[in-house]
Known about the structure:
It is a single chain. This protein has helices at 3-12, 17-29, 44-55. By secondary structure, the chain is mostly helical. It starts with a helix and ends with a helix.
Amino acid sequence: MSIPELKAYLLENRNDGEAIHAIIEKIHLNPNTQRYSAEDADRLPEIYEEHRKRRGA
């Protein structure tokens, strides 16, 4: 399953431990995944806006 498919599945099956593990593994293995630290919490609105602009929303 793709990450979007896993996300949709997890919305319907929130207690499926295998699916949770699978999506975490896929995200972790994706070299393009942006990771943030605890220090970035203060910048969340700014980070969200940057992400929204990149996606064209």
